[in-house]
Amino acid sequence: MILSCPECSTRYVVDPAAIGPSGRTVRCTRCSHSWAAPPSAIEELVVAQAVSDPVPPPIDFSRGARPRGTNLPALPGEKRSRAPAVLWTILLLFIIGVAGVAVWQRDVVIARVPGAVDLYELVGLGPEPPGTGLALENVRQKVSTRDGTQILRIDGDIVNVSGHPRDVPHMLGVLLDGAGKEIERWEFKPPLPKLLHHERAPFSTELVNPPDVASEVRVTFGGKLDGAADSKKPK
């Protein structure tokens, strides 16, 4: 069958099977004009083809290919909806956002859903140890007598060495004997509940009548002695 561009009158030889029984939109490769070849015009075009032009071999349009050396018009392919790709993108961004919030607010999540700690630990994002990002400096101790009672006083500084504000957990004082065995421990509140970046706050705690066998004093956060600042043997 023969198609003629209504814009520039360029004629094309087209296999009727490429148009189909319901018609199809075609585009002129010369002027890029698109028009619809209606099914009602197919029979007339086939007759015109038989009169004026030889019939070329059948051409397979199933893949939208245009053989080299022919003047067949470009047949626009079916437009695919982008909705599935957009939905998948939105879903992916939502999952990334939820994961980011879950990591950023993991302490809040664990506080509200204690069972979530196992999941965080499974992916290597367990809760931070108490006092993470904080350091104890200038820890010193002094034993004195007050009203006939022996008092062990420990002073020092808490410093935020991280790059963002940190909550300050409760603090522990621990007495150890010469063999490193724990003799006594006590808990005390920090001077401030939160420290800003590089902020420093002094702390102080006292123990009444410390045992005579005590040879070492340690101060730490939340009950863990790892990395705790040591002070000298009480005098």
Describe the secondary structure blueprint for this structure.
Layout: E1 2-4, E2 11-13, H1 16-19, E3 24-27, E4 34-37, H2 42-52, H3 83-104, H4 106-112, H5 116-122, E5 134-146, E6 149-160, E7 166-167, E8 171-176, E9 182-188, E10 194-195, E11 200-208, E12 216-221, E13 229-231
Antiparallel strand pairs: 1-2, 3-4, 5-6, 6-11, 7-10, 8-9, 8-12, 12-13
CATH class of the largest domain: Mainly Beta
How many strands, what sense, and barrel or not for the largest sheet?
4 strands, antiparallel
Task: State the order of secondary-structure elements, H for helix, E for strand.
Answer: EEHEEHHHHEEEEEEEEE
C-alpha termini separation: 111 Å
Domain module count: 3
Strand order of the largest sheet: 9-8-12-13
SS element count, helices: 5
CATH superfamily of the largest domain: Immunoglobulins
Mean pLDDT: 75
CATH architecture of the largest domain: Sandwich
- In terms of structural class, how would the helical and strand content be classed? alpha+beta
Portion in beta strands: 25-35%
Write down how many β-strands occur, each being a DSSP E stretch of 2 or more residues: 13
Radius of gyration computed on alpha carbons: 42 Å
